[in-house]
């Protein structure tokens, strides 16, 4: 109970659309299907930051399917050790009821949210990158002046977003994402049907890259992007900080 003279508790009413790929594989250049999904750290760390900030978080996927974690992201070598892997697994178990009841992305309206966040993994390269309806949703967020934030491979989901005149919406924007060098070091570049850095640059983005596997953020207007898994928490923290300052 509030005592006389105390300030009323501030309630954060920020509504976040947390859009996650529904893909469980990535079709490689030879036609084989590489198991994938979302990258654990890129979902868990931003979720923790946004949840701590008091945001109302709505998970959504194409078709409302339950998103799949890329099992490679839970391997100790990728996660940062046995303890870190166990921590990620535990958090994903806690979140499973929310993920299993993800909203249908196609049914949602940008007017009902304050910002959009998309985690990476190769999943977005398979579905969101070619989803015209999602591109329209992104356009509505951007044209409404709302924050759009994506990390690692998730900026692939910017590719289907076009302005009303047919121009790619992010032409001339500074941004970042998983680099060609990181894809080579991860071992999939030679099998990839296309590389994210190349495709974004070809579309007209001003691509920025930092040191491989180290945090690197780029903010241009209301677009926030992070380069790799290590950028996940810093990206979410930057979004929260900037929105709080407004």
Automatic annotation (TrEMBL):
GO terms for biological process: methylglyoxal catabolic process to D-lactate via S-lactoyl-glutathione. One of its GO terms (molecular function) is glyoxalase III activity. Coiled coil: none annotated. Keywords: Glycosidase, Hydrolase, Lyase, Stress response. Its EC number is 3.2.-.-. Pfam families: DJ-1_PfpI (PF01965). InterPro entries: Class_I_gatase-like (IPR029062), DJ-1/PfpI (IPR002818), Prot/Nucl_acid_deglycase (IPR050325). Residues 40-240 form the DJ-1/PfpI domain. Gene3D superfamilies: 3.40.50.880. The keyword Lyase applies. One of its GO terms (cellular component) is cytoplasm. Transmembrane segments: none annotated. SUPFAM superfamilies: Class I glutamine amidotransferase-like. PANTHER family: GLUTATHIONE-INDEPENDENT GLYOXALASE HSP31-RELATED, PROTEIN/NUCLEIC ACID DEGLYCASE DJ-1-RELATED. Belongs to the peptidase C56 family. HSP31-like subfamily. This is Transcriptional regulator. It comes from Rhodococcus coprophilus. The gene is yfkM_1.
């Amino acid at each position: 109970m509030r005592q006389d003279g105390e300030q009323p508790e501030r309630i954060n009413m920020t509504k976040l659309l947390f859009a996650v790929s529904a893909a469980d594989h990535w079709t490689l250049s030879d036609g084989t299907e590489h198991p994938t999904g979302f990258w654990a750290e890129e979902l868990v760390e931003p979720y923790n930051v946004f949840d701590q900030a008091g945001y109302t978080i709505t998970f959504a996927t194409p078709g409302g399917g339950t998103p799949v974690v890329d099992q490679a992201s839970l391997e100790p070598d990728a996660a940062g050790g046995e303890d870190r892997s166990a921590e990620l697994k535990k958090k994903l178990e806690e979140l499973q009821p929310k993920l299993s009841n993800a909203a249908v992305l196609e049914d949602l309206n940008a007017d009902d949210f304050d910002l959009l966040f998309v985690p990476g993994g190769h999943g977005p390269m398979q579905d969101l990158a070619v989803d015209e309806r999602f591109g329209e949703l992104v356009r509505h967020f951007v044209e409404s002046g709302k924050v759009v934030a994506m990390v690692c491979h998730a900026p692939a989901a910017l590719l289907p977003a076009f302005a009303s005149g047919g121009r790619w919406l992010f032409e001339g924007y500074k941004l970042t994402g998983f680099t060609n060098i990181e894809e080579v070091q991860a071992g999939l570049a030679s099998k990839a049907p296309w590389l994210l850095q190349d495709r974004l640059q070809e579309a007209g983005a001003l691509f920025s890259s930092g040191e491989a596997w180290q945090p690197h953020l780029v903010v241009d207007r209301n677009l926030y992007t992070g380069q790799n898994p290590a950028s996940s928490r810093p990206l979410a923290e930057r979004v929260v900080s900037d929105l709080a300052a407004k």
